[in-house]
Task: inverse folding
């Protein structure tokens, strides 16, 4: 009996040791070091779209951000039905490292500015880290996508929380429905195999009525006056011009449509020619 117990104990110790070896050799812990290494693989390069603009390309989306105003001027992403299905199957938890905001290599963390901005408003009103072109739920088809989605400056902007859960999330839900996602327990039928999305932020450059700028510890973040978005479904461009206001509830999205030609005129560039 004692000999059998020894064999059993030995067996379990062997299993434990092999499990540890397998995690260290074959697995990869997703932690701060992993995230840092991941971002180093995709450096930013100068863009001529604006004086402080830089281009960032990763496997999930492209973005040109104004690194002085600290928001994306334009993003482009392609989302497929397969991507949506992969996200639902992966079910990456939105917590821990997959809920943290990161920065591209060489860029400063903006958290202190966001914290300061929220001291200037009274609860329950608040500012949020707002996804621009690629919502977390549309990016988290795997762990790296979830991480890259939460990228300060290049993937998000200083957004009123009302708009974050209002017109902005309404555009995201529309995208997911078109691609056959399950929302609130309802399974939608995919209308097309993929969509292209372009989105970006706009601020007021009029010196008589400038956009609000928050500064803390030598870092500044401009509060965009509006966010624009194009959802291209086949040959149809569905365009939105959404004021960055706390009062922008979901129901207002139907009033935020804009013709493509008018959008291009307001921006001063054609999004589909800048990033494709």
Result:
């Amino acid at each position: 009996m004692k000999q059998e117990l020894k064999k059993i104990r030995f067996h379990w110790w062997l299993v434990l040791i092999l499990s540890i070896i397998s995690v260290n050799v074959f697995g990869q812990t997703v932690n701060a070091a992993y995230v840092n290494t991941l971002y180093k693989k995709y450096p930013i390069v100068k863009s001529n779209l604006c004086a402080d603009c830089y281009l960032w390309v990763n496997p999930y989306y492209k973005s040109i951000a104004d690194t002085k105003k600290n928001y994306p001027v334009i993003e482009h992403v392609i989302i497929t039905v397969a991507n949506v299905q992969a996200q639902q199957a992966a079910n990456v938890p939105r917590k821990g490292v997959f809920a943290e905001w990161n920065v591209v290599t060489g860029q400063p963390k903006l958290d202190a500015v966001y914290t300061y901005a929220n001291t200037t408003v009274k609860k329950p009103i608040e500012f949020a880290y707002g996804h621009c072109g690629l919502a977390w739920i549309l990016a988290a088809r795997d762990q790296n996508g979830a991480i890259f989605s939460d990228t300060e400056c290049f993937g998000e902007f200083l957004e009123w929380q009302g708009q974050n859960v209002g017109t902005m999330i309404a555009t995201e839900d529309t995208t997911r429905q078109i691609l056959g996602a399950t929302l609130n327990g309802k399974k939608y039928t995919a209308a097309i195999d993929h969509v292209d999305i372009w989105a970006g932020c706009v601020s007021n450059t009029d010196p008589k009525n400038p956009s609000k700028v928050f500064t803390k510890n030598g870092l500044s973040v401009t509060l965009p006056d509006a966010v624009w978005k194009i959802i291209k479904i086949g040959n149809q461009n569905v365009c939105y011009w959404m004021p960055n206001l706390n009062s922008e509830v979901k129901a207002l999205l139907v009033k935020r449509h804009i013709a493509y030609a008018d959008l291009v005129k307001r921006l001063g560039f054609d999004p589909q020619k800048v990033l494709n």
